[in-house]
Amino acid sequence: MTKFNYKHKVTIAGHRGDPKAVPENTIASFRSSVEKGADMLELDVHMTKDGEIIVMHDDKVDRTTNGSGRICEKTLAEMKELSCGEYNGEILRVPTFREFCEFVKPCDVLINVEFKDYFDTHGEEFSDLSMRKTVEIIEEFDLSDRVVMNSFDAHILKKLAEMNGGKYRTHGFYPYSIMRNVESDPTEYLYCACMFDFNADNAKFLKDHGIETWLGAGVVTKEQFETGIGLGAVLFTTNDTAEALRICTELGVR
Question: From CA 90, how far away is CA 112, in angstroms rounded?
């Protein structure tokens, strides 16, 4: 797999878009993050009952919409009836992954796609079909060179790493005990890992094995950013794009 050609010493990824300002995982939220200067957009994908790939974090719609129930038990039409909230007088709707790709295609940003239909919660057939349909859309829009594929499910990551001659970048989590369905050593196939417990020993392990060190949205203060950078983190995912960029500019890594 090829390495990303980052523009800055530290890359900022909008976590589910720009949820500090706009309801998460909506096109408006992704647009807000891009307009503020994010280098990457992170999003989550699920498959509906009728086989459509949509963008949402939870496997239920309860937290982020005015509806209730599991995504895998709803059709796309039912998902499209839901409201994700309001922004600038507009009712925000659940986007399909294809709609996200249409939005992001002309944008100069990288993409972090998190696969959420897990092997152990949705079954192998459903999980595999969801994964493959998502990859097909990525290929349809010719976005694979800008994408990293992410999951807490190591079963999915291993499959992705083996697809299409190993061309896809895979994103896991470290320590590996955070992940589910770990069947073999993730060190063998990970491009990068989000380090949950960011300390010198964990950072050294990732560096020694050629795995890029990333940090997640729990990093919010200048001191935390500074510590992470000192440990070799090259990317931070954030819920507040503007603040993360402000801090990194102040630290001289933008």
Answer: 26
CA dihedral 170, 173, 179, 183 (to 10 degrees): 50
Task: Give per-residue pLDDT as tens, 18-64.
Answer: 999 999 999 999 999 999 999 999 999 999 999 999 999 999 999 99
Is 171 catalytic? The answer is: no
- Put simply, whether the predicted model's pTM sits higher than 0.85 gets the answer yes
Q: What is the mean pLDDT of the chain?
A: 98
User: Residues with Cβ < 8 Å from 173, sequence gap 6 or more?
Assistant: 152, 179, 193, 194, 195, 196
- Cβ burial of 89 (10 Å; 0-12, 13-18, 19+) is exposed
Domain over 11-43+98-250 is classified CATH 3.90.1150.10: no
Catalytic residue among 15, 122, 155, 171: 15
Q: Which of 46, 57, 155, 171 is catalytic?
A: 57
Backbone phi, then psi, for 171, in 5-degree steps? -120, 120
Task: Determine whether 8 is an active site residue.
Answer: no
The pLDDT-based confidence of 83 (bands split at 50, 70, 90) is very high
Please give the pLDDT value at position 84: 98
Query: Tokens 């020993």 label which residue?
Result: 201
